[in-house]
Design brief:
By secondary structure, this protein is α+β, with helices and mostly antiparallel strands. It has one domain. The strands form two sheets. Strands 1, 2, 3, 4, 5 and 9 form a six-stranded antiparallel beta sheet that branches. Strands 6-7-8 form a three-stranded antiparallel beta sheet. Strand 1 and strand 2 form a beta hairpin. Helix 5 packs antiparallel against helix 7. The N and C termini lie far apart (50 Å). The relative contact order is 0.22. About 28% of the residues have low confidence.
């Protein structure tokens, strides 16, 4: 069974076949296939990270864009301007980290993503950084992709993803055993599922799809343990309406703001 949640031109997640303790998970943002390097996720670790993100967002997490005069693309570039520099300060690193998202292990570590929140609206910025990816896709070099998603929709997609991943390997491989009543009840039209339909338009992640093999897959099977978030897990099994709360702006320390402006 393959389940697609969301819209690929904004944000979407697709969950597919199992391979031992790994399962295919594909993500899209702004029409871009994000998991093109490694789409076989170690389910325990990946789901735990997704649940943590759900808990953060449902508690009102997320900051507005910190620079009023900049677009989302320019804000992304400004935040990354001193990333990895020898003289980058801890203050700069911590400030940038406030906005980081999709830090869900090897499946998503081929992109740098930031999230900005404006009440009930989220802005997601994504940039591919690996040299081999940019060689294959030269039009991605230096480009920042931007997706605007209602907060309720984004949280609902992640909650649905956690529910699907919570199904056992046996359940996920047999028609009729995925908790479809939860998916339909909580996420409505953003959910599509297909059983035994081959590579139809929902099953195929994109043209040029390939599964991960070799060192990346071995890396998954070696070292990632699942986290424990029992309270969140129980809540996801009986999903409630996502809460959207207004957050205070992320204030930029004056010294750091002077540094960024002069860079």
């Amino acid at each position: 069974m393959t389940v697609l949640l969301g819209e690929r031109n904004r944000f979407a997640a697709e969950v597919g076949e199992w391979e031992h303790s790994l399962r295919r998970v594909d993500l899209w943002a702004a029409g871009q296939w994000l998991t093109c390097d490694d789409n076989m996720a170690f389910v325990g670790q990946f789901r735990s990270d997704v649940v943590d993100t759900v808990a953060w967002l449902r508690s009102g997490g997320g900051f507005p864009m910190p620079f009023d005069d900049l677009s989302p693309e320019a804000t992304h570039r400004r935040l990354m301007q001193r990333s990895g520099a020898d003289d980058e300060t801890e203050e700069e690193y911590v400030f940038r980290s406030r906005f980081r998202v999709l830090s869900w292990g090897p499946t998503t570590d081929n992109v740098t993503a930031f999230l900005f929140r404006d009440a009930d609206r989220l802005v997601l910025t994504v940039r591919f950084w690996r040299e081999e990816h940019l060689v294959r896709h030269p039009d991605h070099a230096g480009r920042v992709f931007v997706a605007e998603v209602p907060a309720e929709e984004f949280v609902g997609i992640l909650e649905g993803l956690a529910v699907v991943l919570d199904a056992s390997q046996d359940q996920g491989s047999r028609p009729g055993h995925l908790p479809q009543h939860q998916l339909r009840g909580a996420f409505g039209p953003v959910v599509r599922s297909s059983v035994g339909q081959g590579n139809d338009r929902w099953n195929a992640p994109s043209e040029g799809y390939r599964s991960t093999s070799g060192p990346l897959r071995a890396r998954r099977q070696r070292g990632y343990g699942s986290g424990h978030a029992d309270a969140i897990r129980d809540e996801l099994r009986s999903p409630a309406e996502p809460r959207v709360t207004e957050t205070a702006p992320a204030s930029v320390p004056p010294a750091l703001l002077d540094t960024l402006r002069s860079a």
